[in-house]
């Protein structure tokens, strides 16, 4: 089973961030402040804070991962009503020669950007359409087509992979999916289109997507307490489909404040108990499409949410190995699809197996151990 990692491309300047957060802002701004004021246990890459607008830095990232034994990246892809964003890594991929046998595919992060994590939930920065029209879909597929045609782009049974992060964001996911399939077919592509499952309510999408990934640790966070209730998710979905996105964000923020006071910390043992549980196994059995795992290397969004952070403690190598073995040995998980780890470099959410100045590279070595 191939072992990939999610790649987070938000480490270069773009105009929308300059205007929203201040000139020169990148996610390194969040990491450096969290480190300086001890909002968390410090972390940063061994190689220092890199600028992905510099193609040499992008090349170094791909080369470092390949040398370590990572076989590819699932790369977050940002597409909005007005087109692509955060495209430095994609510009590099449009012409670069990647390491031998190193692949990649795109994960469309299909959600609008707001200032929610700064407490300004109604200030929308970039909008993803909940009902994309055919012209927008044509532009999007036209943008994706040369990447999917590349020999480096990851395929399963000869078909390129394309993963959608939030199917519930669309007013009618089945209709939107059918429109994308039609447009891909028009340009001579027949991709396998999957989705990220983050709650029990997402089981319904397994009937019309080609595959899915269990997105951890979001699935874990949503698996207990009030968040487990399908009714709560159903109400939220009705809200986001019935009102403007800014209003939906405001209501979601208010509900979130009611459900959560201050910070929440989970041990990795908490996570492992869930990961190997019969409840999770039974959930997987309900899915109607092939399923694969997204493993987790810890999580801490204190750089964004500060005292309202959610943390999953960083595992030690032995704990990580238990999770990995479970994912590799359970026949319910499809070996046709690459195993993913969240993430290679999502430093601003405390999720990285890229070698860390403070934490070392134990998790990277554990992930790649045969």
Characterise this structure.
This protein has helices at 15-21, 27-36, 55-68, 88-93, 134-148, 173-186, 218-221, 230-242, 245-259, 268-275, 278-285, 302-305, 317-329, 362-368, and strands at residues 3-7, 72-80, 83-85, 103-108, 113-115, 120-126, 155-156, 159-164, 192-197, 211-215, 264-266, 291-296, 299-300, 310-312, 339-342. By secondary structure, the protein is α/β, with parallel strands linked by helices. It has a single domain (3-368), classed as TIM Barrel, CATH 3.20.20. The strands form 3 sheets. It has an 8-stranded parallel beta barrel. A 3-stranded mixed sheet has the order 11-14-13. Helix 5 (134-148) crosses helix 6 and helix 8 packs antiparallel against helix 9. The longest helix has 15 residues, at 134-148. It starts with a strand and ends with a helix. The mean pLDDT is 92.
Question: How many domains, as an integer?
Answer: 1
Main beta sheet: 8 strands, parallel, barrel
Number of strands: 15
Strand order of the main beta sheet, please? 1-2-4-8-9-10-12-15
Radius of gyration: 19 Å
Morphology call: globular
Helicity range: 25-40%
Category from helices, strands and their pairing: alpha/beta
For the record, give the distance between the C-alpha atoms at the N and C termini, rounded to a whole number. 10 Å
Q: Sketch the topology as an H/E string, one letter per element.
A: EHHHEEHEEEHEEHEEHHHEHHEEHEHEH
Query: If classified by CATH, what would the architecture be?
Result: Alpha-Beta Barrel
Low-confidence stretches: none
Number of helices: 14
CATH topology: TIM Barrel
Q: What would the average pLDDT be, to the nearest integer? A: 92
What is the CATH C-level name?
A: Alpha Beta
The percentage of residues in β strands lies in 15-25%
